[in-house]
Amino acid sequence: MLVEFELIQKAQQGDAGAFNQIVSAYRRRILGTISRLIGRPEDVEDVSQEVFIRLYFSLGQLRTAEVFEPWLYRLTVNASYDYLRKGRRRLESRMADLSEQQVMMADAVAGSRAQSDEGEKRRVRDTVQELLSAVSEEDRILLTLKEVEGLSLKELEKVYHVSENALKVRLFRARQRVLKKMKEVTGPSPLSAKEDKTR
Amino acid sequence: MISNRPMEHQDSSQSRLDELFLAYRQACPDLEPTPNYMPELWAKIEAREVSTNWFGRVAKALVTAALAASVILGMMVSSANRPNAFFNATFVEALQANQMAGLDPLHVDRMAELGQQ
Question: In order of start, what are the domains of chain A with their CATH numbers?
């Protein structure tokens, strides 16, 4: 945990300075997580501020130190989900503008792990956003937390209050849908195409 | 020999997706907040507090008004629907009352006459 529980208790009693310290300790991490969850850098600050506003108004309900971080993640997930739901139509129209060539290039970039300039990074972001559009907002967030943020199933269990097995099933299905979408937009992998020629 | 090409193809897709997620993680690094982050946050918190208080006051007033209206309506309904003995009686009681009303009044002198016969 990045802050002591005493600091949280002070913030619960209305100490603005203590709340400022909590925000300062976590905001960078929250900004990064939201940026990967929503994929829109220009809206990341707004969504992260919404997370801390919700934290401010619900801090009084927190009883133990160990639930603080999963709880903060839960607030982050909920705020990101609300944002994605509101912006779904806008995001879909933006994704429809992506050409297949761009997607192929981004995939090649990802394969070689050589994304050095901002243009390449943007293409990777756009590709992943398009692949994630194949699943619901809930699954998109869950998949991103697991595959991109690197949260373990145990950690996800604490965030979602759902059994590990249920999470595994949901993750598997979401991943299968993303894989299917990846095949649709990029075609068969270079490896399998090469094998087909040699047969 | 059994071909395991579909499995290999599946594995390559899985690893391609893993690489893509890794590239995505690198393409979206942790961000630094802008200098106005905290002042903006506090301004939003204060605005939310003001609106929450306003909504709270309005909600409280509405609840009070609704409570008063339901008490008045309750009183009006109860005074309008005074219990009617006929409608409140059971079927047997109503039938009995109806039969009793249809009988002639009992005359003691006529009963005596009947006894003499």
Answer: 1-90 (1.10.1740.10), 97-187 (1.10.10.10)
Q: Could you give the CA distance from residue A131 to residue A115 in angstroms, rounded to a whole number? A: 18
CB-neighbour burial class of residue A181 (10 A; exposed 0-12, middle 13-18, buried 19+): middle
Given a contact cutoff of 8 angstroms between Cβ atoms, the answer to whether A28 and B33 are in contact is: yes
pLDDT tens, position by position, A37-86: 988 888 999 999 999 999 999 998 888 888 899 999 999 999 999 998 88
Check: CB of residue B20 under 8 Å from CB of residue A128: yes
Q: Which value does ipTM take for this structure?
A: 0.73
Q: Which of A106-120, B7-21, B92-106 has the lowest mean pLDDT?
A: A106-120
* Residue numbers in chain A where pLDDT is lower than 50: 89, 93, 114-115, 190-199
Shortest distance, CA B62 to any CA of chain A (angstroms) = 24
Q: From A111, which residue of chain B is nearest by alpha-carbon distance?
A: B19
- Kindly tell me if the per-residue pLDDT of B89 is higher than 80: no
User: Is B14 in the A-facing interface, judged by CB distances under 8 Å?
Assistant: yes
Cβ <8 Å between B34 and A39: no
Q: Is there a contact between A125 and B24 if contact means CB atoms under 8 Å apart?
A: yes
Mutate to test the interface with A, among B11, B24, B52 (most CBs of A within 10 A): B24
